[in-house]
Amino acid sequence: AFGCGQPTGVLVRAAESLAMAGEWVQATEVNLQLLDSANVADSDRAQTLKRLGYAQAAQGEMQKAADSWAAALLLGLEDGDVRLNLALVLYEQGLWTEAIEHLRRSFEQRPAAMTLVYTGRCYMGLGKLGVAIHYLEEATADPDELDPEVRKAVMDELSFLYAGQSDYERAVRACEQSLAMTYDPITALRLGRMQFSAGRLEEAWGTLKAIPMDLLRPVERAEVLDELSRIRAEEKDLVSAVELLSDAHLLSPSADRDYRLGLFYREMGEVDKATHSLESAVESAPDETRYRLALAYTYEHAGRFDEAARLFAEAVDREPDYISIYKQLGYN
User: Fold this and answer.
1) How many helices (H) and strands (E) does the chain have?
2) CA neighbor of 16 nearest in space, from 2, 37, 4
3) What predicted TM-score, i.e. pTM, was given to this entire model?
4) Closest Cα partner for 312 from 299, 302, 270?
5) Burial of 296 (0-12, 13-18, 19+ CB in 10 A)
6) I need a labelling partner for 327 at 20 to 30 A (CA). Which of 113, 168, 205, 271 fits?
């Protein structure tokens, strides 16, 4: 035990030794004792707060650690590692703007790819996706700077960001780089989607067909079949598109799959099957206006005008700004 009468230098050495030994509770107590000492220079107090923050973090007391590090910085401490650790706590709390400032100052003192990664992720949290892309691209510029697992995660994030900006070619390249590091079926599924969106249908088909379906859960297998169905539909092979989508629906039934099946059947001229699928979609999701409208148009096509009018009227009640519905009801 260390009493209040211990010289400051002895307490500092004790705090450092306890930290090296992993005795975090005692290290915390000694650092708190140091903070209670009189006539301590701000620079020494800042170093004590830095050590205290690490001891608190080691015990999982992240808010206390953040408070200690912030207090140390206010006393004039300039330490890139402290700023980085404080930024990571703020990042986990969703305080993106505050975290970015500490990440910037940390990077100035000690440039590191991980600092760029977290800066990019903060901008993602703020919805500034173009800026996020810049930082994540910078972070991955040197393939040796990041741990492979982290680099793969960043490439996955970039693929989402590129897709969000409709830059499907770069999304494809990001997915390919991720898969080159470690293959996983979910990224392969995303690659197939991006290839489809980029108009590379043959490549998308090959990517999706190569996915080991036994590694996927039923809902994920259904998503693969969804994408294969989209490709066949784009190629105007509606019979194959329906078969694939029907298989997906068996694996993971949904109103949206009923809706898409209904549209396919209607385009194929199979009105009874279209009606059945669209009625199922409306029954499963009665608040979805587009399902009601699709069924109304199908009723109209089948000559069931009273039922079509009822659904159009209901759609007007739900979506009064839907101008095209008024035209169906005969209003100008």
Assistant:
1) 19, 0
2) 2
3) 0.83
4) 299
5) buried
6) 271
